[in-house]
Structures are given as structure tokens and as C-alpha cells.
Write a structure and sequence with these properties.
Elements (H helix, E strand, L loop, with lengths): L4 H38 L3 E6 L3 E4 L12 E5 L2 H13 L4 E9 L2 E10 L4 E10 L4 H10 L2 E6 L5 E7 L9 H7 L3 H19 L1
Parallel strand pairs: 1-6, 3-7
Antiparallel strand pairs: 2-3, 4-5, 5-6, 7-8
């Protein structure tokens, strides 16, 4: 008779361990945001700190009826949304920095949106899955631009920032490809089609 007890325990332990690692990684991300914001405040800047309620990447065609828009969307908590909206009426936040770390297929990231003209910095902490990021990442790299969207839970956008260096967000496209579903299958199909074409030409 096959016994599954040990396997079930092992799976449960792996799931719990993964959850623990993700909680620790998220906690470290929030700590990083706090430390960065504190540095700017010490230099006299006003700061806004946002722990995104949800974060996700999207590429052209991922949103119904939209074949062009791409970037990373962050859900801003309700108590911060109005403040962020007012700040984006005052500045375009032309400067930025990206701080990121990878863990278990997730990217934990703090984006510092900087507005020197009003000496204000908006720090946004979020985490997104690499397996769903390929469309966004490849589009950003190909076009040489990237976008951050700050929005309410209902989808209302309160701020958009264009970035000129997508490599800061996606420094390793191969790592994202490894997590993307069906990429290997598509690659193999493409190779097979190429081989058939070679045979036909011959």
C-alpha cells in the first residue's frame, strides 16, 4: 500500500515555508521603503509612502479593448489616493529610482517617484509575479519606455509616470521568460516550423 502521509506533510511544509519567505520579503521591502523615505525627509523633502494593496504588470492586449497600454499598475489605498492625485496636478515626477529584489518567482520593488520642483517624493512598494510579466517586459524593452500607474481600487487612475529606462524594472528578461507559461512550448513549435521550412526549401 502506498502511504501519502509523509508527502502531504512535506507539501504542507513547503507551502508554509514559501508563505513565510514571501512575508519576510514583503516586510523587508517595506523596511527599505521606510529607510529611503526617511533619508529624503532628512534632506527636507516631503514624502508619501504607499504600500500598494495590489500590484500587477500588463502589456498590450492584456486589458480588454486596449492594444497599446502597458506598464505596472499599483492600487493606492483610499487614504492616499486623493493626496497622490493632488501631487500629480503639481508635478509630472520626472525623476525616479527603482529598488528591486527577486524571491520565489516574485519581484519585490520600491519605486521612488521624485519631483525636485516641489521637493516631494512618492515611494511605492509592490510585488508582482514574473510569470505574468513577459508581455509587459518585452514591450517595454522593445519600445525603450516604461509606465507606472497609480490607481484606486475601482481602476480610477490618480497618477501616471513615464520612465525612460525599462532595464531598471526588467534587468533580466531571460529570468522572466523562464517563469512565463508555455514559452518553451512556443519556442519548440517555432523551431519545428523552422525545420519544416528548411526541409521544404531543400
Amino acid at each position: 500500500m502506498v502511504e501519502f502521509g509523509d508527502e502531504e506533510v512535506s507539501n504542507a511544509e513547503r507551502i508554509a515555508s514559501s508563505a513565510d519567505r514571501r512575508r519576510e520579503a514583503w516586510g523587508a521591502t517595506l523596511d527599505d521603503m521606510t529607510a529611503l523615505a526617511d533619508e529624503y525627509e532628512e534632506e527636507g523633502w516631503e514624502t508619501v509612502r504607499i504600500a500598494a494593496g495590489s500590484t500587477g504588470t500588463f502589456g498590450p492586449g492584456d486589458l480588454e479593448g486596449d492594444e497599446e497600454t502597458f506598464g505596472i499598475a499599483y492600487v493606492v489605498p483610499g487614504d492616499k489616493a486623493e493626496e497622490v492625485s493632488e501631487l500629480f496636478e503639481q508635478s509630472s515626477f520626472p525623476e525616479y529610482e527603482v529598488y528591486r529584489a527577486e524571491n520565489d518567482g516574485l519581484v519585490y520593488m520600491v519605486t521612488a517617484l521624485l519631483a525636485p520642483d516641489i521637493e516631494t517624493a512618492v515611494f511605492v512598494a509592490g510585488a508582482w509575479e514574473q510569470r505574468t510579466a513577459l508581455n509587459c517586459a518585452t514591450t517595454a524593452i522593445e519600445r525603450g519606455q516604461m509606465f507606472s500607474y497609480l490607481q484606486k481600487l475601482d481602476g480610477t487612475v490618480v497618477g501616471v509616470v513615464e520612465h525612460d529606462d525599462p532595464d531598471k524594472f526588467f534587468p533580466n528578461l531571460d529570468a522572466i521568460r523562464r517563469y512565463a507559461p508555455n514559452v518553451d512550448d512556443e519556442s519548440e513549435d517555432g523551431d519545428a516550423a523552422a525545420d519544416e521550412n528548411d526541409d521544404t526549401d531543400a
